[in-house]
Amino acid sequence: MTTQGILVVHPGWHEGDAAVLDRATYQRYQDELQEGTRVLFYMKEPVDALVGEAQVTGNPVQAEIEPEAPVSDPVSPRAEEPVRRMNDPQPTRIDQRTYHLPYLMLHSIDNISQIPLGTIRARIGSEFGVFDDEWIPLTEEQYDALVGEWEHNAS
């Protein structure tokens, strides 16, 4: 089963950079994010546009992000202690695992124009928006309409 969707990337992302998913997104969509899945890369503000197309070439690979070092306050004698919540006997821990999606670029910003947010909404619906989502599933018709925009611009 081939699926398709939009993967949201940070400003400054370039072809060859890791396509990163957080743990919650991966767990929610792991059945869709398999070899053969078609991906449109959407770059967040200030770009707000589709910047490339790729195909997933394997299963997502789990990676870990090193947590940032705690900031020490030389004035406070307790600065080295982890932050604790009220009535929480253990330090607050954040699961830093991420998943990197292996991909093969089909169209990149080097050889196609960006598809801005307004055009995306015109092609697939005005309710389209990017909030905290990293993966936005699309129907085949929606995907084809967006890819068709690149073909239309190329002619």
Structure report:
- By secondary structure, this protein is α+β, with helices and mostly antiparallel strands.
- 23% of the residues are buried.
- About 17% of the residues have low confidence.
- A hairpin with a 5-residue loop joins β3 and β4.
- The chain contains three helices and nine strands.
- The chain is globular and about 40 Å long.
- The strands form two sheets. Strands 1, 3, 4, 7, 8 and 9 form a six-stranded mixed beta sheet that branches. It has a three-stranded antiparallel beta sheet with strand order 2-6-5.
Using the CA coordinates, give the radius of gyration.
19 Å
> What would you call the structural class?
alpha+beta
* Intertermini distance: 31 Å
Q: Report the average pLDDT across residues.
A: 80
Strand fraction band?
Answer: 25-35%
Encode the helix/strand succession as letters: EEHEEEEEEHEH
Q: Bin the helical content.
A: 10-25%
Count the helices. How many? 3
Number of strands: 9
- Low-confidence stretches at least 5 residues in length (pLDDT < 50)? 69-94
Main sheet makeup: 6 strands, mixed
Oligomerization category of the chains in this entry: single chain
Large-scale geometry: globular
